[in-house]
Model the fold of this input.
Amino acid sequence: MRRLPEALATLHASGSAMRAVGGGSLRSRARGALSLGRPLSAFVALLLIVFLLLALMYAALAVNQGIRGYSAAESEWSKGRKEAVHQLERYLRTGAPEAWDRYVAGLTVPLALRKARLEMERSDYRPTLAVNYMVGAGSHPDDAALMALLFRWFGWQPIVADAIRIWTEADAYIVALEQLGRSVRVGRLSGELAADDVDRMLADLDRIDLAVLPLEIAFSARLGEAARLTKLMLAMILLVASLLLLGLGAYIVRRVTARVFMARTFEAEERFRKTFEVAPVGIAHIGLDGRWTDVNDSLCRMLGYEREALIGCHEADLLAHGFHQTWDKSVPLDYSGSADTMHGERSYRRSDGHTVILQLHVTTVRNLYGEALNYVAIAHDVTESRRMARELSFRARHDLLTGLLNRYEFERIVKDLAEDADAERVPAMLLYLDLDQFKVVNDSCGHMAGDAMLTELAALIRGCLRSGDTLARLGGDEFGVLLQHCPPTKAETIAEKIRSEVAAFRFHWGERSFNLGVSIGIVPFVPGEYEGARLLSVADYACYAAKEAGRNQLHLARPEDANTVRHHEEMNWLGRLQDAHDEDRFFLVWQPIVPVHHAPGTPPRHFEVLLRLRERDGSVSMPGTFLSAAERYGKVIELDTWVVSSLMQWLNDHVEWADHIDQLNVNVSGAAVSDPRYIECVTALITQSRFPADRLCFEITETMAISNIGAATAFMKRLSEYGCRFALDDFGIGSSSFAYLNALPVDFVKIDGAFVHDLDRDAVHESITRCIIDVAHSMGKATVAEFVESDAVRRRLQMLGCGYAQGFGIGAATPLGDFSLRPTGPARPVLVDTAQRMAV
Done:
């Protein structure tokens, strides 16, 4: 038995031997084994035994079923006999007709079974008639047929013969019972049955009953003995048949297995040989000494050698030195046989001198006892896929136009350095470069010229850097530079060199020549102090500040600077504003605007609509905290649109309050005034609304209106066609406010709160306010004073002739629909930078 596994293991190591002898020896042995006489006789014997076993089992089961049928019949015979005795006794005593009928019915089963017995004892036995008698006695037709066969075939058997004898004796008493019944019947019908006759007949009935009872018990006992005997016979049959089957089966398996094993071994070897020869992957058989004992054609093509040149060659002799190996070059494989599988990539030298990279899967072939026989190596040529992987890796990390690192890789490098707590804590610098006027080249000469310029500038900037510095193109005309181990003075020197070199650079495209500048943001940092994302954000801000300072400038910013922190907060506001919009946390309030001579107790009818943001913790953020971020990053138009849409929706839902409102002021940013989509949105809402458009007043800041007077005038003219009115907000803070006032078609001039809040204490502010009121009235425009915080200021405004007042001294902001005045008393107003101020 030990020789079979060894032979099987040897198959995996015998590829070269098979090729040498053509597989003739094994093929001859397999054909010889298959040509031997097949064990047909053994199979026939096996089939006969099985058939005999089944037949005997069926016969035993049939006998058992027949015995069970007799048991059931005996039970019915006993019940019928007892019923007949009982009812005949009752008939003797009472003469009740129903007792006679039940006596006759009870005697039917015993008489029918008697007839069946007599029929089965006849020499000219009629099976159908006997079966019908037993069926008439209550037996199942299938059981009745088996009972008849059991009676006829096994009547000679002592137990069965004794049971038949008992049955015959019992039938004699049944005949006597029948005759006694006839006598009783005749006596009752004739009326000649005396008391002595009844007593005599009852005595005869008791005698018959007592005589039959032991016969019933004896018959049941014989049936039980027959059933147990049948069970024993069935067990013996199964035992003998099982022993025969096991013996014969073992003989057949032993002879057939040897033949099948030989045939399958040949087939397996043939399949393995064919697979080895035509497999598209390289396959090599390697001896325990590390030398190739056989190789297939695919491996020969991969390495460019003939088979004869490779067979006997050591794997290490073909390695391409100087290339990366995932296994040690000096020990290419573990030839100790301790490892079952090995995986890795190897670089081999082809016959033409080129290098090929093969991915190897090496398996150790072992015998039954775990001893290593040889190795089988499967080789895949991954040269091209590795080349493509390197190219894709390069593309993923580099800008294809300039060959520099791209934004993703640059941000990763910055992040790794900035957040490396174990890095050497020496100064580093992050530069963010944005070319000035680059768009001119693209617009005038096309993107091909722009690409050529970027390529030349990338080389120019690289020439300004040290050998270890990192340069990347971040997108468009933006570049990033990481200077490690660089103090601030050195970084500024490098940045200034880049700026001056770019400024001196001349790009020629055809007959045209271009020069441009570069704005550079500089951020110093020490590794481990800040997150990479924060540094990049600060660098972006620093570059933006350089552009704001006049372009072609340098601007140094630190993460902890106040302006940098404000910029970072504005960046955070972008996500918070989007979340607030998505979660519906914006809401509107209004603040009353009343005539200066407003009568106490009279509800206001003129309001300015204001925007608020409810934070997740329930607190409320005022517009001054987030509007500059919204304006800087293009979110303010969305806010303007939400305000006017929400207001018009509220007015449509509360039409009944329109009669209590004379005017609603809505603030508009400069970006929205110049946006045609916003204007179309407002006109569509006005057209669809049931609120009168002549009660809407749009507020535009003086600074915005003067800086873009054309767009402001066009906006006012368009909406005035629907009856809307306009107010010039924060008037007086501009350097040339009065020069443009007459050119703007506004209905209200809102005096900036910086002049109003201390009007009663500052003579200069009072003079400026009086001047604004007089000039506005001379132009036919109403005036509104903002930041009215006290009654003293309101009275002074009344003396100056101001028309309306607004502020906490008049009434604080309340929810839409609240018409009450809620002054908060004197309070110091919070004045915000005019660049951030916006009433919405």
